[in-house]
Write a structure and sequence with these properties.
mainly beta; globular; 96 residues; OB fold (Dihydrolipoamide Acetyltransferase, E2P)
Length: 96
């Protein structure tokens, strides 16, 4: 009998900020954490390198990334789907 409660891989949603590398995208994921001392919400942005086999995603796209086996020294994520395409007139996304 097969186990029907199969775990889904860990995933996050972020925005593609760089598409200059071949088959690799840089994705920024924004998290809201609570400050340990002051209990105030703090925004944290983390950059992940994600694999994109068909080079379908571009800067400004909102994508879902899932964890996968290491593909290189810094690339341990894969783009599973494109949630929202960027507008055509936006060249790049500014990150402060």
């Amino acid at each position: 009998m097969q186990n029907k409660n199969k775990k889904r891989p860990f995933s996050m949603i972020g925005i593609v900020v760089s598409d200059r590398m071949n088959k690799t995208r840089v994705v920024i994921v924004e998290k809201m954490l609570k400050h340990t001392k002051y209990d105030k919400p703090v925004k944290r942005r983390i950059r992940y390198k994600a694999h994109d086999e068909q080079n379908q995603s571009h800067s400004g796209d909102r994508v879902e990334i899932v964890i996968t086996k290491p593909m290189s020294r810094g690339k341990r994520w894969r783009i599973s789907r494109i949630i929202e395409k960027a507008l055509a007139d936006i060249g790049s996304v500014e990150v402060a």
